[in-house]
Structures are given as C-alpha cells and as structure tokens.
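Page 42, continued from yesterday. The earlier attempt failed because a stray header line got pasted into the input along with the sequence. Redoing it now with the clean sequence only.
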Amino acid sequence: MENVSIVPVRGLTTEFLMEMRVELNLQIIGDTPNGHRRVYHITGGTALGPDFKGEILPGGGDWFIVRPDGVGLLDVRATVKTDDDALIYVTYRGILYNTPALEARLIAGETVRWDEYYFRVAPFFETASEKYAYLNHTLAIGVGEADFAGVSYSVYRVI
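This time it went through. Structure tokens are written below.
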C-alpha cells in the first residue's frame, strides 16, 4: 500500500487483550465456484492475556476460502477454556492477503513475519461468566502471523 497516510481516529485507542496461538490441521476441499476452499480444524492452542490464561479447545475451525483475486477470507469459531474453568466462545472474520511467493514459503514450513503480508482479524466474544462479561461488549482487532502448524494473533480491545 503505497502513499497511505495514517490518520488518528477521534476517540479510538486500543489496549492489549491477549495473545492467541491456534494449532491446526488442514483439510483441502479444493477449487469451488466460490474460490479455493480449505477447512482448518482446530486441534488446540492457548489464549494468554493480562486478565486470563486459557486453552483453546479442540473442535473449532476456520472455513477459509481464497477468492480468485488471491484474497483469503477467514471464518473462524473457537472455544477458550480459562484456567478458572470459564468458557469463552470466540468467532472472527478476517483477511489474509499475501503473494504466491509468500504462500509457497508458508506451505514449505517457513515462518513468514507478520509485517510481510496483510493478516487482520476482528474477533467477537460470548461468555456466561460474570468475571469475563466485559468481553461480551468488546470490539477487538488482531494481527495474525501464520506458520505451517498454525497461527498466532495479537489481539487488542478497541476502547
């Protein structure tokens, strides 16, 4: 993105919410009328923040599609179990855009730095826990980084 100016937005700041690491298994559906479909099954992971520590439970997934223009669209659902046994449902949409050369590096097992491509997510949370109820009215954004075994996200709460 050349000649992009960063513009402060009135009243918009962020604070660190958590670091997520999601371990995945890949299922390739292939080229469909909507694009190249892959399903990433979540096998585990961690969610660590200043207010909680948790594990990402197996069973969620990302119904990922790469459009014909090369843009990857994420559609993720996952459950976090905190160390004090609260369950937090997490869903997010996102965009992963890189070049074929970067995609080849990822598939080859190389870690590609987060600033070499565009990988952004917008998580939403649901929980019945009173302790974590603030997440039910939190708008969050995240920056992703992928490697062969999974993805990592730095997630921030929009204030």
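Notes: The domain at 14-158 is CATH 2.40.160.20 (Porin).
Reminder to self: strip header lines before submitting.
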